[in-house]
Amino acid sequence: MTIEHIVIVGGGTAGWMAAAALSRLRAGRELAITLVESESIGTVGVGEATIPPFVEFNQLLEIDEAEMLAAVQGTFKLGIQFRNWGRQGDSYIHPFGNYGYQIGSVGFHHVWHHARAHGDKRPIQVFNAETMAAYFGRFQRTQGMDRDDLPPINYAYHIDASRYAGFLRRYAEKRGVVRQEGRVEDVALHGDRGDVVSIRLESGEVVAGDLFVDCTGFRGLLIEQALETGYEDWTHWLPCNRAVALPCHRDDGSGPPPFTVATAHAAGWQWQVPLQHRNGNGHVYCDAYMDADEATDILMANMAGKPTAEPNHLRFVTGRRRLFWNRNVVALGLSAGFMEPLESTSIHLINTGVTKLIATLSLDGITDAQRNTFNRITGREYEKIRDFLILHYHATARDDSEFWNYCRTMSVPDSLTEKIALFRDTGQIFREEDELFTETSWAAVMMGQGIAMRGHNALADTLDPAKTRKELDEIEKSIRFLVQHMPAHADFLAGYCPGT
Ligand code: FAD
């Protein structure tokens, strides 16, 4: 069956990201795209922190960065600061970008470890430009500095997700996507094939299609309620299942820092996402160890200013749909699965989902090869991210609450146990199967949470210590120069993309 009409159900971040990206397929083709959404149901609208591939997603759509950031009150993000995770009082930054660069044939953190054994006691953070810029509250792209000896700056954005969805709506409608307001009441399946044939709206109107993209959020209206795809529950590894979100003013008049903050509490953690005009805040927690009132009180007591809305309470089950593409339905966003926003990966998974959909889609029809490939790759992506998130909870010395005692002592996937053991013994991190998180990411979180390297790649021992020290000096010097010449983040925003 050829694909002439794609129907996207749901208009949150997932729905409009899908609509915007798919709208580019229309050029020169007979392809209709309809997006159905219900204003009365609304969106989750709290997804605000992103990671660097999101910058590429916007570039792919040829979106003007400054225009988009102004429209969504966006700021730049250089990484995430984790507070109180390894122990209370601890703090480290998981930066975008790498520590140093490869010297000889081994990764930088091996060289750094070797240099330490020869008396160089500098912390690894001074060799990462994003970390240093974050500490000093500065931002500028290296590209704007007219020097080619400086490291590039890797960044992402903090955005107001609701405004971003609105921005993409304008983009997609301009390119021929038709938006249809209405609540879906019924889903009709084909008698033999079991495919979705059409959806019926509250108004009685029927919308038929060839391929359906389920972006209906946690409901999973098509993928679960109609097709009963099933869900893999990962709560035993990631026990948080509630969140309370509450934006606030920054009362002290400070500018937005160029990083997200994730502060661990007794039964979960709190996010702070700085936008130009306010901070997004939320507390992710586990209801077996804390109730909603206590979680809200902790959040309110640890915010930078007065709330600008009422607390928004959300429930979720961490895990993934058994199939992301089932029959002629592809699930994107919250309908595909959910992992807490600790590493800002949800919007990223929408990005990779829609990119994979476009890459595997043939308008001549849907095949098992497309579906199976999509499901296999997406499943692996989810699992790799899952393991990285579990690391944050498991690699802790915290014993001050039942929640942390559970996380510290729980059994974790074998893949993660092996990754930790290998790093501890040899400093080695293998980035397997195109996984999202880099060696620097794993090393930053492991070292930041108290997993020390006992050894390093033996090849690092073949380096000349004096020469290595000079190279490290050069890296540190160029990062210091770069950061000293950057404007304050707030000043950069004011000149480049002041919020509208
Ligand atoms: P939703 O926003 O729920 O949209 C669902 C859409 O479906 C709506 O338009 C609704 O109208 C429509 N709909 C539903 N049922 C019907 C029906 N019957 N008829 C018609 N329309 C219907 N991600 C990040 O990347 N970074 C973060 O910092 C981050 N923080 C988060 C914090 C929390 C607490 C949560 C819960 C999520 C967070 N996320 C984050 C995830 C992010 O919010 C979502 O991935 C993203 O917003 C996508 O949501 P969605 O579009 O899938 O669903």
Automatic annotation (TrEMBL):
Determine if Ligase is one of this entry's keywords. no
Q: Where do the catalytic residues lie? A: 77
UniProt KW keywords: FAD, Flavoprotein, Nucleotide-binding
UniProt key word Lipid metabolism: no
Q: Which residues form a coiled coil?
A: none
- In which domain of life is the source organism classified? Bacteria
List residues binding L-tryptophan.
343
The protein's GO terms of the molecular function aspect are: monooxygenase activity; nucleotide binding
Q: Which residues bind 7-chloro-L-tryptophan?
A: 77
Q: Which InterPro entries match?
A: FAD/NAD-bd_sf, Flavin-dep_Halogenase_NPB, Flavin_halogenase, Trp_halogen
Positions of FAD binding: 11-14, 184, 334, 347
According to UniProt, the name of this protein is Tryptophan 7-halogenase
